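Ticket #4471: structure output looks truncated?

Reporter: J.K.
Steps to reproduce: submitted the chain below (271 residues) through the standard prediction queue, then opened the result file.
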Amino acid sequence: MKKPILVSIPHGGWKVADEIKDIWALTKKDAFHDGDPYTSQIYDFSDRVNIQIIMEYYRAVVDLNRQPDDIAPQNPDGVIKSHTCYNVEVYKKNCLPDDDLKKRLLNKYYFPYHQFLQDCLKRKDIRMGVDCHSMAAVSPPIEGDARHPRPLICLGNLGDAEGNISERHHRITCDPEMLRFMRDEFINIFQHEDVDLEIPAVCSMNVPFEGGYITRQMGNKGIAFVQIEMSRALYLSSPYFNEETLECDQKRINDLNNKVWKVLSKTVENI
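Returned output as attached by the reporter:
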C-alpha cells in the first residue's frame, strides 16, 4: 500500500530545453554540478508514494525553487540564470534570453510544475510533502561562507535550528516535533557514514537551508511539508563516483534511496 506522501524533485533534471539549445553554453559537467545530480533516483519513490513529480530539465534551464520574478540579470542565480552557482556563464555571449523567451520558458516549464503542486494540496490522500534536493559538500563560491563544510542531511521547515518558529518567517511548515523526529531518524541511519570531510553534523535543521520557494508555497496549507537536502559527499565522491564520466555506483544510489525511505515511511506513520 502506498504512503500518503507527495515527493517533489525540482533540481534532478538532465535535459536542455529545445528553446535554448542554440544559445546554451554549459558543458554537460558544468550543468551536472550546478544541479542536484542523481536526486531523480535517490528520491525515486514512485512505487511507494501517492504522488511524485520530477523536473526533467537542468536547474540552469529553469530553477523551480525560485520566485517567478527572481530572474537574471538582476539575480544571476535566479529562476532563469545568467550564471551557475559556480559562476559559470549559462548562455553564449550576449545571448541571455530576452523577455519573450523568458516568458515562454516559465509558461512551459515553471508554472505547470507549481500548478501541479498546488493541485496536490486539494487531495485527501496526502499527509506529508517533501521537496528533495542535494547540496554541495562544501558551500559554493556564490555563498558568503564559501568552502564551508555542510552536514550530511539538512531538513528545512522555515524555522530555527530546533525546528521552532523563527523571527525570519514567523511560521513553520511542519510541527517542530515532526522535524526533530525526522532529524533523529536520519542521524540513526546515517551516523556511521564514512565521508572524507569534517562535517558539522550528521543532520541539521534549517542550517544551512531553511526551505526554498517551493517549501514556502506549500507550507501551512493542510499538509506537513519539509525540504530535504543531502550532501553530495555521500555519493559524488570516491569510491562511488567517476568525475570524468559523471557516473555513480548504482548500488550506492539504491542504498541511499532505501535509507531515505526508511525515514520518510517512519515519519508519515508517526504524524
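Triage note (M.O.): checked the attachment and the full C-alpha cell line is present. The chain is about 30% helix and 15% strand.
Status: closed, working as intended.
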